[in-house]
Amino acid sequence: MSARRIAVIAGDGIGPEVVPAAIGCLDAVAAAHGFSLDWTELPWGSAYYRAHGRMMPLDGLDTLAGHDAVFLGAVGDPGIPDVETLWGLLIPIRRRFDQYVNLRPVRRLPGVRSPLAGTEPIDLVIVRENTEGEYSEVGGRVYRGRPEELAVQEAVFTRHGVTRVAAYAAEVAAGRRGELTSATKSNGIVHTMPFWDEVVRDTVAGAGGVRLRSELIDALAASLVLHPERYDVIVASNLFGDILSDLAGAVTGSIGCAPSANLNPPGRHPSMFEPVHGSAPDIAGQGVANPIGQIWSGALMFDALGEPAAARHLVAAFEAALDGGVRTRDVGGTATTTEMADAVRAHIGALTPSYVPE
Ligand code: NAD
Ligand code: IPM
Ligand code: MN
Q: Does the beta carbon of 239 sit less than 6 angstroms from any atom of ligand 2?
């Protein structure tokens, strides 16, 4: 039985609740498909920070480099500035391993009611640029001690960076309905965005069969609420993609269900799989967090590890569990995190691997 080496960082808040719940489901699916997961549990995060003054050891990134993938819960603690927790762990991982695509599928799930009135299927993918843009490290500074205090940070868009994420998004669209929407703000105010538009257009022009349209981010946000069924693939800059992904998660029911994959498409470095949501300190420790976003992120990890049948098995199992009426509080149910994961595991056992739908 071949083993995949997975570094697991449960992290903070609800991370240590949803990560073990998901691991039980992932192990069960892997066993059914003839492979195993060799988990390296890394106790990094805010507790580690309190003990050592840093979120992970100095050689933490080298430790991760020796793994096939990273499975992350979330980081963020109300008692520690976010700048420490995020720049001390999450962002360095994305950058060191050049995880320039943040892939965030969004679907209406069976049995999960959307706050929106319609019942049309929602099935779209957000491809978020994940290493540059508004999250740049250039010029980030607050100027104090002067009559007019100010804060400045440059947004940095490189032709290389925009081209590769647009090419990836076009490839995803080509394998789906062929509709690619680029989120922009090119009406003369944000000066980087006409360049984003130009590079996206140049890149997608070469992708046969993909129809590209650009939408201004403000109108796109509204349209995503009113007509989510119209979207297929959305390519967006780091910040726009961040905001759209929580919005899209809420539109389909709860951000507790939303998964993400931080990918290094050539596969030279490990990719990282984590839910879209954060550490949710407001519900941490209550055992009520929805584990579906974490479990679905595990399915994205199976896809990236070259195990698509296992990915489909896992998705079919959590869909069946939700459809069967087991749901956590955020999606209108009463199940605890553990009860939700147990229901998913029961469906994993009930579905025969060779009959998992394509
Ligand atoms: P959040 O996503 O943690 O929570 C937003 C709301 O959604 C909360 O009301 C929370 O209870 C709810 N929610 C989130 N996940 C849920 C789940 N699985 N089940 C049920 N309800 C869920 O966002 P926030 O409160 O703005 O951020 C909290 C902390 O997490 C901050 O420190 C932030 O920086 C950090 N954060 C980390 C990551 C990450 O590590 N990848 C991502 C986002 C936010
Ligand atoms: C996400 C998170 C992070 C981001 C934060 C915590 C830095 O919101 O993964 O969506 O903005 O990338
Ligand atoms: Mn976010």
A: no
